[in-house]
Amino acid sequence: MGTTPALFRTGNARTGGGGAGSGGINVIVGKMNGVNEAIIDAEGWTIKATGNVTVEAGKENDYSDSTVNVQSYDVTLGGLTGYANVVLAYNTARNNAIVKGLDGKLELTGDLIVNAYGYTAARSYGYTANIAAAALGATVVYSKLNSVQRAIIDTTADIKARCIKVLSEQNSERMHKPSTWT
For residue 42, which of 17, 49, 76, 101 is within the disulfide window of CB 3.0 to 4.6 Å? Predict the structure, then answer.
C-alpha cells in the first residue's frame, strides 16, 4: 500500500481598484479531506506469510503529505477605498495504517510492522495594500487543522509473529516543511 501525497492549494485571489472610490471583496475557502489508508482486514481469514508483513500509510522517507494553503491579495487605490478579505483553510485529512478484524489469524515467521508517517498543515494568508485618502477594511484569516493519523492494531484475531512494531509519526521536526507558497 503506497503513499498518496496530496498538496492542495487554492485561493490566490487578487482584487484591485482605482479612482475616486474603489473596493474589493475576497472570500476564499480551501478544504483538504483526503484519505490515505493501508489496511489488513483479518476478519474470518487465516493469513500466513514467510518473513515480515508491513502495513504502511506513508513511508519513513516518503511520508503522506496533506497540506492546504489558501491566500488572498487585495490592492486598492483611490480617494476612498474599501475592502474585505475572508481567508479560510480547513484540513481534516486521514492517514491510517490499520490491522483489523474481529476474528481470524495472522501467522508470520517474521515481524508485523504497522507504520503511519504523515505531514499535515492548514495555512491561510491575507495580504492587503491601500493607497488612499481614507481606507476602511477588514481581513479575517482562519486555519483549522483537524487531521487524524493512526497506526493501530484493532483486532481480536490471533497474531503470531516474531515481533510486533507499531509507529505513528506526524509532523515531526525532521519532516518539517516551511510553506512553499509563492
Answer: 101
Can you name the residues that pair with 78 across neighbouring β-strands?
A: 132
Strand partners, 111: 163
Q: How far is CA 175 from CA 12, 25, 75, 123, 150, in A?
A: 26, 36, 35, 17, 17
| CB-based burial label for 119 (10 Å; 0-12, 13-18, 19+) | buried
Using DSSP bridges, classify how beta strands 46-49 and 105-108 pair: parallel, antiparallel or unpaired. Answer: parallel
What percentage of the chain has pLDDT greater than the value 90? 52
Task: Name the amino acid, one letter, at 60.
Answer: E
3-state secondary structure of 90: strand
Is 46 a residue whose pLDDT tops 70?
yes
Show Cβ contacts of residue 49 under 8 Å, excluding neighbours closer than 6 positions.
106, 107, 108, 109, 110
